[in-house]
Amino acid sequence: MANVLKHLPELEGMELGYIQGILKDMNEEQAALFSQVYRARRKDSQMILILTLIGFFGFAGLHRFILGQIGLGILYLLTVGLCFIGTIVDLVNYKSLAYEFNIKVAHETISLMSMSSNLKQEDKNE
Question: What global pTM score does this model have?
Fold first, then answer.
């Protein structure tokens, strides 16, 4: 059972609990690999907050592009953050935007790891 704070000390709140649930069934080697890939791909909620604030000064939707929501990013850019209303809503919800993105990244990372282990098993069998 891997310790989440040993591998990912920057996590907090709901994200910490969720990732701890993922790491509980992993050994230390798997947890180290997961944390390395996850840390490289996750988005910090403070970065999302800063990018959302930049939306008030001409680049509305930049945070949506960073979160991989290209369509909403273009919509925010063309409508000035849906007349600032969408940007204000995102300012209030910046932590949940980051959390949802990071959960998606965690699932993608687990999928990559399982595909990698399946390929290794196939190579051993041949």
Answer: 0.88
